[in-house]
Design brief:
It is built from 15 helices and 21 strands. The chain is α/β, with parallel strands linked by helices. It folds into 4 domains: about 150 residues, Alpha-D-Glucose-1,6-Bisphosphate, subunit A, domain 3 (Alpha-D-Glucose-1,6-Bisphosphate, Chain A, domain 3, 3-Layer(aba) Sandwich), CATH 3.40.120.10; about 210 residues, 3-Layer(aba) Sandwich (Alpha-D-Glucose-1,6-Bisphosphate, Chain A, domain 3); about 35 residues, no CATH class; about 70 residues, no CATH class. The strands form 6 sheets. Strands 1, 2, 3, 4, 5, 6 and 7 form a 7-stranded mixed beta sheet that branches. It is globular, with a radius of gyration of 24 Å. The protein starts with 9 loop residues before the first strand and ends with a strand.
Length: about 500
């Protein structure tokens, strides 16, 4: 299958990788897949479309809506909202599916298209495969007359989401002072509104999106300003979102960072105290800090571990019907209230625990000790054999015997669950992994690259009539594959 879909939708540089044409085609391909139940029942499917505030989201959302409506799908345009809000509204409206236009914590020039299945669920691999099949070889639906879709404004979308958030709170936030860093992103409106409605005194930073400043020096990848603001205002805690607000990191009253593992530790204890942590189980990835595992053992909470990625956490939670899970990065999932990571919901729940107990966040977060982690990338070996090589496994066993309960050894093959897109820690660049005719390449892109800053366009050779040839243009049938050799001599199948 084509690797157009990465770990979280289709993502790339807007107007280069993610074009208007691709956006329309993806919407047309997804319509009969995600709207199959409605079409089979003889009705037009309904889809919710939302976006973050980056400037390219305007034309990409318009293209997606056009592709959906032209395929016979009715569209509710929810405007600028967090990804978890879009997921909630799909379920609340009983829509057939949803589309979120966002590149999460990537810089502003990037964008992405995330599809949400019925109920606001993330797509399965099988659903992505089926969309790709339609994209590559199935003629889009082209209804006529009254059968085409309508596009309507979802006027109360944000209000519905905020009301939902408030209804999840076990305790109001009266008396708390909270600093919110909205990353100049999708939560700039609804997060401050929700916290104020819950009773908190709110100081807001990073809440002036202009389409170009999303994640730029603010948000969960840049916590320094939030730390300073918490100290300056004497706040009880700070909450940082990313561009689409599906994650949350925190800062305690001293200005110290509280990461996703610590947040999960605090909330696991809170839910267990209330008797709503199903099976006293927390779902985490294999990369969660060992300190969390040891802490949960002391608190009587068992861990279920999954591969890295919130989609795998979700799958693990669904398999056991568990109520809490997440990642160290701040994707925290409360399955009783959300179908995906929700940074605003997580921040409210964490603040509610502080208010409920009257305990400073620093003391609550001390439920676990963050132990040092050393990550080593071993080159020049067959990593696919890491789990089966006898000598390697013997060495791991020996090391773990020496470490005992004080440490662990985790081997991960870079081929297992490897994403197609890896972001840099500064949020301004990425490595994209591409494949051409069975050969893998790594493309490095950074917003501050000298070549990118200095690029002024390409000069073309002057027109020479000696280069002209007479030819007849015959359009190929849709979906026709043609093998084209590139400059490297590699043959690429082209549709």
């Amino acid at each position: 299958m084509s690797r157009l879909f990465g770990t979280d939708g289709v993502r790339g540089l807007a107007n280069e990788t993610l074009t208007v044409e691709l956006s329309v085609q993806l919407a047309q391909a997804a319509s009969p897949v995600l709207g199959a139940e409605a079409f089979d029942a003889g009705r037009r499917p309904v889809a919710v479309v939302a976006r973050d505030p980056r400037i390219s989201g305007e034309f990409i959302a318009a293209a997606v809506q056009a592709g959906l409506a032209s395929s016979g799908v009715d569209v509710w345009d929810a405007g600028v909202l967090p990804t978890p809000a879009a997921a909630y509204l799909v379920g609340d409206l009983d829509a057939d599916f949803g589309v979120m236009i966002s590149a999460s914590h990537n810089p502003a020039p990037d964008n992405g298209i995330k599809f949400l299945a019925r109920g606001g669920e993330k797509l399965t691999d099988a659903q992505e495969d089926e969309i790709i099949r339609h994209l590559e070889g199935v003629t889009p639906r082209r209804p006529q007359g009254a059968d085409v879709g309508r596009v309507r404004v979802f006027a109360d979308a944000e209000d519905r989401y905020v009301l939902h958030l408030l209804q999840t709170l076990p305790h109001r936030l009266d008396g708390l002072k909270v600093v919110l860093d909205c990353a100049h992103g999708a939560a700039a409106g609804c997060s401050p509104e929700a916290f104020r409605a819950a009773g908190a005194e709110v100081v807001v930073i990073g809440a002036s999106p202009d389409g170009l400043n999303i994640n730029d020096g603010y948000g969960s990848t840049h916590l320094e300003k939030l730390q300073a603001a918490v100290r300056e205002h004497g706040a009880d805690l700070g909450i940082a979102h990313d561009g689409d607000a599906d994650r949350c990191l925190a800062v305690d009253e001293r200005g110290e960072v509280v990461d996703g593992d610590q947040i999960m530790g605090v909330m696991a204890v809170a839910l267990k105290d209330r008797g709503v942590l199903r099976d006293d189980t927390l779902v985490v990835t294999v990369m969660s800090n060992l300190g969390l595992k040891l802490a949960m053992g002391r608190e009587g909470v068992q861990l279920v571990e999954t591969q890295v990625g919130d989609r795998y956490v979700l799958a693990g939670m669904k398999l056991g019907d568990y109520s809490l899970g997440g990642e160290q990065s701040g994707h925290v999932i409360f399955s009783d209230h959300a179908t995906t990571g929700d940074g605003v919901l997580t921040g409210l729940q964490l603040a509610s625990r502080v208010a409920e107990t009257g305990t400073p966040l620093s003391e609550l977060a001390a439920v676990m000790d963050r132990l040092p982690q050393v990550l080593v990338n071993v080159r020049g070996v067959d990593k696919s054999r890491a789990a089966e090589d006898e000598a390697v496994q013997a060495a791991v066993a020996e090391a773990e015997a020496r470490l005992g309960e004080t440490g662990r050894v985790l081997l991960r093959s870079d081929r297992e669950g490897a994403p197609d897109w890896l972001e840099f820690d500064d949020g301004r660049g990425a490595l994209s992994i591409i494949e051409r005719s069975g050969i893998a390449f790594v493309r490095v892109r950074h917003a501050d690259a000298e070549a990118r800053r200095r690029f002024g366009g390409l000069e073309y050779w002057p027109i020479d009539r000696n280069w002209q040839i007479e030819a007849t243009f015959t359009p190929a049938a849709p979906g026709t594959r043609v093998d084209i050799a590139n400059i490297l001599g590699l043959v690429e199948p082209t549709v």
